Amino acid sequence: MLLAILLAAGIQTPDLTCRVRDLHGELVRSSTRRALFLRLSGFPKGRPGWIADHVIPLVCGGCDIPSNFQWLTAEQALRKDKEVGVFGRAPKCDGPW
Asked: Is the pLDDT of residue 61 over 50?
């Protein structure tokens, strides 16, 4: 349902927020797009114990757009972060997500 709403609104299309880095080499993030995902999923203030996570991680070329977010428990998100390698090592970008 959420994806259908996003597609109907034309929000699924990646734009300049994909893989763009700032002057320090950090990935550019969009708090506006995250907030839109939260609102569209019915939890505008977030879900206690849950993390709004990127389906395809930003370090693996995922976009910071609402259709690339999913809800994971804090435990699931930590396990995924360890598997992908966001903690200071080269990312493992072959999924599964």
From this structure: yes
